Amino acid sequence: xxxxxxxRIEGIAVYPIISLITFFIFFAAALVWVFRLDKKYLTQxxxxxxxxxxxxxxxxxxxxxxxxx
Amino acid sequence: xxxxKFSYDNQIVKLFMIAAVTFAIVGMLVGxxxxxxxxxxxxxxxxxxxxxxxxxPLHTNSVIFAFVGNIIFAGVYYxxxxxxxxxMWNDKLSQFHFWGWQLIILAAAISLPLGITTSKEYAExxxxxxxxxxxxxxxxxxxxxxxxIKRREKHIYVAVWFYIATFVTITVLHVVNSIEIPVGLFKxxxxxxxVQDALVQWWYGHNAxxxxxxxxFLGLMYYFLPKAANRPxxxxxxxILHFWSLIFLxxxxxxxxxxxxxxxxxxxxxxxxxSIMLIAPSWGGMLNGLLTLRGAWDRVREDPILKFMVVAxxxxxxATFEGPMLSLKSVNAISHFTDWTIAHVHVGALxxxxxxxxxxxxxxxxxxxxxxxxxxxxxxxxxWISTLGIVFYAVPMYWxxxxxxxxxxxxxxxxxxxxxNFLETxxxxxxxxxxxxxxxxxYFLGMFILVYNLMKTAKNGKFISNEEAEAAPYExxxxxxxxxxxxxxxxxxxxxxxxxxxxxxxIGGLVEIVPTFLIKSNIPTIAxxxxxxxxxxxxxxxxIREGCVSCHSQLVRPxxxxxxxxxxxxxxxxxxxxxxxxxxxxxxGPDLARVGKKYPNVWHYxxxxxxxxxxxxxxxxxYPWLLTQTLDITTTPAxxxxxxxxxxxxxxxxxxxxxxxxxxxxxxxxKDLINNGIPAESDKDIIALIAxxxxxxxxxxxxxxxxx
Lengths: 69, 708
What we know:
The complex is a heterodimer. Chain A folds into two domains: about 1-35; about 35-70. By secondary structure, chain A is mainly alpha-helical. Chain A starts with a helix and ends with a helix. Chain A is built from four helices and no strands. The relative contact order of chain A is 0.07. Chain B has two domains: about 155-475 and about 485-510, Up-down Bundle (Cytochrome C Oxidase, Chain A), CATH 1.20.210; about 535-705, Cytochrome c-like domain (Cytochrome Bc1 Complex, Chain D, domain 2). The N and C termini of chain B lie far apart (about 80 Å). By secondary structure, chain B is mainly alpha-helical. Chain B is globular and about 90 Å long. In chain B, the strands form two sheets. Chain B has a two-stranded antiparallel ribbon with strand order 1-4. Chain B is about 65% helix and about 5% strand. At the A-B interface, helix 1, helix 2 and helix 3 of A face helix 2, helix 6, helix 7, helix 8 and helix 17 of B.
């Protein structure tokens, strides 16, 4: 039905392809990004809401590894 | 190291919390009333503003924007201050935000029952309220960014990214979907028409679910779950990945609300593909939440707060798996327009939003009043009654949705519809609706347990209005762009972060919407499709006022079961003058796209007066006020002018004669009614509504040859 009219728009087929490629690149970049983050920083961020901050509380890091808690 | 002393503002959190609980009760009560009206239509007590069509938007708006909205603000104001280690930027702005938001809710609570509505789902509020929303929303954003900028914590925790993305995206959605031309103080027409309006509306509607009911709640989950479980989130890497993929993908998926509609096929397929891909980031969030509890599952047995959160995450997982499944065309062919959709959204609303909200409330109140929760036992009872409520709600709705859909599609061996009378399929599912309202009642009653428990808790403690805290100030250092440090660099800069989020969501929005605007000139103009007559236009606005679109679709899908029942399937070109579109999303009653000329005027008159007269057993409410209320024709010229501005080809100067045409057409219908023994008067609302209904879908009916 409408697909015939939409096909009259020049280069319409390129839109869905652009979307997929954009997402793929974006996702791949995010993946690389995430795996290059360093461990110390990640631990610090994970503990942030628990208010065991590195800078103010260097012992905070122990918290995560302490299975008692 | 120098340490600064400051305090967290708990007062504003308390206000938002009280508002959230109050409007949860109001919103659920309205939901319960309309659920019962679906089998006892007399429950509207014959009052216009108590009818289903007018109360349904009140229910959705109060649950989404009043209950969930207020709990989001309460949670954001609580957690944001603590993860950035700073008091809210400006206390006065916080107060303005709070009272402004409640004023909007009040305006909605008055205007929606009065029938002042744009009819666009989850965006029903009229233009003056839209402006209020914009101002108050910006004040929230300003306050949030102000707080982030004066923070004492170098990095911004993942919860806050979700808050930023929420703010940015809702701003864009609200602005784009609310572009409308005012016709007087309480009425407006959207600039978009037909297919375009549908696409913009569902791009908005879908993303309102995404960025109002999902992303802020994920943010809350990332703060409150680790707090309640007293352990860090499972994987910070996963949270980064799932955040960016989620906001990137969500924005594309809107067209899955319009499968098999007159929307271009490529846009439908795009919606489906991105919906399927959405499973990954959604489940990323769910798993990150559930795995945070690794090694602590024994505590879930004892701690009601964790129970609420686990059920919330599970419901989130179920709803976000079901959503993509519903986007598959073959599944959608069955589920769309039925109770299945209602079940789906309530697993999300009652399960994900409700249960997480309760968990957060039970966690925050003891903290803010410096005491313990009054009764774990009561919280456990609340947990069980709500969980049972969800089960009693959702299961019958799935059952009735599938049963009714299959009945609609059932043919006899001779090739005719087995249930040609729509009403037969309605009566079949009434037992399911009764059980559903019981489920709703259970969930509603649970709210009173929560209120009692929290009030008792507050009484046992003393409210800490300003919570003392201390932290070292954040010295801005010039972080070099080290290897792998890009995200760290980014998340230290909230404004750049917001801009990147904006770009990410705009990519999807633009690719999806721009081509549809390009087709504006390419939409097949069907020569037989003419603008509405003035009387029909007024009738259409009555249709909008009464919320008919809540129960009646105007879109025949290209299935044999639908063309047999309703007639020729709908074409995009038929809607070019529809500001707004009225396709609807639910068929509690039959589709009306081709109802024109199907029944005589007298049938409509008697049916609207009391549907039972024409269809015994009908669950449609009576509309006696339409017979007595006089049609306001002073608005006709303004409406004609507004429509012309929007591109509807009324001749110049027609506004001066429009009311003459209106009266002429009204007199013809009245004469016909009188000839059939009805003492009708030509200046009443009902005449206009009949004129509109009789016009629906007839343009191509009378001239089949032209559409070939």
